[in-house]
Each structure stands twice: as C-alpha cells, then as structure tokens.
Amino acid sequence: MAEADRPHLVVLTGAGISAESGIQTFRAADGLWADHPVEAVATPEAWHRDPERVLRFYDARRDQVRRARPNPAHKALARLEKRGFRVSIVTQNIDDLHERAGSRRVLHLHGEILQARSTVDPRLRYPLPRGGIALGDVCDKGGQLRPDVVWFGEAVPRYPEACELVAEADLLLVVGTSLAVMPAAALLDQAPLEAPCVLVDPEARDLAPPGVTRLARPAGEGVPALARHWQREGRLWVPEALAEG
C-alpha cells in the first residue's frame, strides 16, 4: 500500500508529554518558570526591554532540554512510524524529544529551542548543537540572533500547515495538552467529522470536549497502550477497553 493510501494518524502533543521527561512547563509551581513571569521572558516586549535576561532564561531552558531524554510516549510514536504506520506529529513543544526518539515527521508549532533565528530576517536560522546565544551573536545579515521560538503575542507562522495536517487525519491523538493555549486548541476543529479523536492526559475527564474519547493516563502509559493495540491489529481504532468516555 502506498503511503498516501495508509490511514493517517495525526498527533497533537503538548507540554505534558515533555514534562514526563523532566522538562518543566510554564504552568508548573516550581522549576525554571517559577521565578520568571511569562511577561518578563517570553514576549516581544520582554526582548526589547531586557534581551540579556531573555537569552539567559532560554539558555537555561536549552540546557534542560539537552539533559532530557525521550520517554515511552515519544518512543511509542516513533515505533509506530517504523512499523509502517503513517504518523504526523504537530507539537506545541520546542524541544527535540520526538526527533531523538526517531519520529521523522514533526511540525514544531511554536518553534525549536535548539535553533537561533535572525531578528532581521526570520528565514535565517542556525542550529545550536551546543552552547547558547549571547548579545553580539549575529546572523549573516548582521542582525542579533534570538531564540527560534514563538513568544506570547507573536503570530504562529506554521499554524496553516498544522491545520492542513489535522484536516488529513483518519484518527487524531491529542497528548499532554490542556487544550487551553490558542491557536493550537482550535486545531481540533480542523479534524474531519468522521475522524475519531482521543485525548491522553491525566486530567482527560475534565479537559476533553464533547465527542472526544478520554484516556485519563499519563502520556508514558496511555500512548504505548494505544500503540500496542494498533500494532497488534494493524489498524487505527479506539479500543473499547481503554476508552473512558
């Protein structure tokens, strides 16, 4: 069967899947974000007011990402792809854990922390395999480099591409997201009416919109469980034994 003819699993992942690898979310009560209000480090205004503070903050986040390791949820999604399933991942996360697990089709909705971006030409991006960004680090056009992430208050340039992917889904799997951050939360509205949607999250019973199957488990438990069913049957479906509503 040609790949284009295979059922398409589209996965929307949020901070919860990375949190299980030890990466703090900005809603966490402790960790990197605790002493750094969003307004002070993750907005265009913060960058213009105190770029050195912003760069220090993202250097610390970058170090945390480099120390983290893919967890069973990341690995289960990569394994599905290796077993011949058609899998596309749209992630709100700025880490590279999906790629390190082995997933090849990953769209980073909010950018990638292991890249720097020009402030004068957003098309100019530079990998950061080690180290960070300092004031005075410039692009090929002489502009200061900044983290290649989408800050609060900025446009999400890859959102239309994400909408197109979700619109192709035969099954939409949502993992580790509160469905509260826009515009990512509106992606569910782009899924075909006939495509089942499953939310895997410890708070799924409270978070899932009507019509969404709830699997109230951590990502590292729920995603591998679903993946095992799909691999065993060779198809995408919602096992009644796992569905909780």
TrEMBL record:
Q: What class of enzyme is it?
A: transferase
Keyword set includes Thylakoid: no
Subcellular localization, per the record?
Cytoplasm
Q: Which reaction does it catalyse?
A: N(6)-succinyl-L-lysyl-[protein] + NAD(+) + H2O = 2''-O-succinyl-ADP-D-ribose + nicotinamide + L-lysyl-[protein]; N(6)-acetyl-L-lysyl-[protein] + NAD(+) + H2O = 2''-O-acetyl-ADP-D-ribose + nicotinamide + L-lysyl-[protein]
**Keywords associated with the record:** Acyltransferase, Cytoplasm, NAD, Transferase
Molecular function in Gene Ontology: NAD-dependent protein lysine deacetylase activity
The residues listed in the UniProt record as binding substrate, with positions renumbered to this chain, are: Y58, R61
Read off the Gene3D superfamilies from this record: SIR2/SIRT2 'Small Domain (3.30.1600.10), TPP-binding domain (3.40.50.1220)
Chain positions recorded as NAD(+) binding sites: 14-33, 92-95, 176-178, 219
Q: What does this protein do?
A: NAD-dependent lysine deacetylase and desuccinylase that specifically removes acetyl and succinyl groups on target proteins. Modulates the activities of several proteins which are inactive in their acylated form.
Q: Which family does it belong to?
A: Belongs to the sirtuin family. Class III subfamily.
Q: Could you identify this protein by its name?
A: NAD-dependent protein deacylase
